[in-house]
Design brief:
- With about 90 residues, this protein is mostly helical.
- The chain has one domain.
- Helix content is about 85%, strand content about 0%.
- Helix 1 crosses helix 3.
- The radius of gyration is 20 Å and the shape is elongated.
Length: about 90
Amino acid sequence: MKQYKTGRVLAAIFLGLMFGLYRHFDQTKWLGRGRDAFLLDQSHRFDKIIQFHSVGFMVIACVILAAIVFGLYELLAATITKLLPPSTVEE
């Protein structure tokens, strides 16, 4: 595997691990609070969605979020590639 591909794979794995840990701790938090607290929070979230829901706003927010995630991924992949020793295998 070439060095830049290794960096990209490791960056994707790292970001997946970070997201998985975030989701795990978020779900653990809600399990500790109980079903009633979770349903109350979801009810408040639904009320916020009803009050303000714009297609334009959602598209712009998702494009910005996608750009941030992609930029973070590329930055992480470039950093990992710089840290890894050069490949000695010739193709």
